[in-house]
Write a structure and sequence with these properties.
The chain is mainly beta. It contains two helices and 13 strands. β6 and β7 form a beta hairpin.
């Protein structure tokens, strides 16, 4: 028993110095006292706030409180009355401008149409472009072709002078076949626009060649739907003679320079004239197709094909003269305008 006690005391003596060395070191600032942090200075400490001014509410009348209806809708204020006694309405019948209206000539600086620095010389007033007289000469066909009867030359001229709504026309169509007399048709017409696309025309026509005949001419010229140019003419001649001429053409622009132009012409006669080889009814048709190259709009050579055909009594008279009632030919020509 004494041995065990002695052994325990020895072990305690060995472990005690180790426990003492394992303690943490002492705090070097343990005895120091930190001074208290000063309070921050007030940035508005020197600003003196003014004393509020007393407001007199004795003159303010508060509306009497009313019991609110829980089922009532929103209250719409009554609009204030507007005094219209100083308002002046413009006159409805006299056309006079009301006081205070801006002068429509305020930006003209005192210049009128017929007077002032911009007036035209001679007392003429300014006009719209559509009221200015212009002129043009169009050689629609200047062509040649080889036919069964020989070479044929054809010239068609359209010339006009006037305005967009009213013009004078001089139309000439000249044909000459090899070995035969020149056949010419000349028209002097006046036209008047009756709509945006149509003109009514009237005048006289003179035919020369195998026989000389004069006609009264009336009809329509214009632009039909889908851009077909149409010229329809009724002719009234001597001794009850009558004729109807119809021409339609279309310009199909393939490129900026190439234009394909189909043309159809029809002639109808009211009487049979054997001396001229004309029969009553549908007499002749012409179908043409021309391709032109516009070096400029004013200068355009073309190449095409045209077929003529006689019908009815006219075809019988043509066969009796030993001629063909149908002729297809290649044409070469030039289109000009000035």
């Amino acid at each position: 028993m004494k041995g065990r006690l002695l052994h325990a005391l020895l072990r305690a003596a060995v472990l005690l110095p180790g426990l003492t060395l394992a303690q943490p070191p002492a705090d070097p600032h343990a005895g120091h006292v930190m001074p208290a942090a000063p309070a921050p200075a007030d940035a508005h400490a020197a600003h003196a706030m003014p004393a509020p001014t007393a407001v007199d509410h004795s003159q303010h009348a508060m509306p009497a409180a009313t019991a609110a209806d829980p089922h009532a809708g929103p209250v719409i204020p009554t609009p204030a009355a507007v005094d219209h006694s100083q308002h002046v309405m413009p006159a409805a019948t006299t056309g006079a401008l009301p006081p205070g209206t801006r002068d429509p000539h305020a930006y003209a600086n005192g210049h009128a149409v017929g007077s002032g620095a911009f007036a035209l010389p001679g007392g003429h007033a300014a006009h719209m472009q559509s009221h200015v007289n212009n002129a043009a000469i169009v050689l629609d066909r200047l062509e040649t072709a080889d036919t069964d009867a020989g070479r044929r030359n054809h010239l068609a001229i359209d010339a006009w002078y006037g305005q967009d709504f009213a013009r004078w026309w001089l139309l000439s169509d000249v044909e000459q076949e090899e070995g035969e007399q020149v056949q010419a048709s000349t028209e002097l017409l006046a036209s008047r626009a009756i709509s945006s696309y149509w003109d009514v025309v009237g005048g006289v026509q003179l035919d020369t060649g195998d026989a000389t005949r004069s006609w009264l001419s009336t009809g329509l010229r214009g632009l039909a739907p889908y851009w077909f140019e149409v010229d329809a003419r009724l002719l009234l001649g001597e001794s009850g003679q009558s004729a109807l001429q119809l021409e339609a053409e279309y310009e199909l622009r393939l490129t900026q320079k190439l234009v394909l132009q189909p043309v159809a012409e029809l002639a109808w006669h009211g009487r049979t004239l054997r001396a001229q080889g004309e029969g009553k009814g549908l007499a002749e048709t012409r179908l043409g197709l021309r391709l032109r190259h516009e070096f400029t709009p004013q200068f355009a050579p073309y190449l095409g094909v045209e077929q003529r055909r006689d019908f009815g009594t006219t075809a019988e008279l043509t066969r009796a003269a030993g001629l063909s009632t149908r002729d297809t030919q290649v044409v070469f020509g030039l289109r000009l305008w000035f």
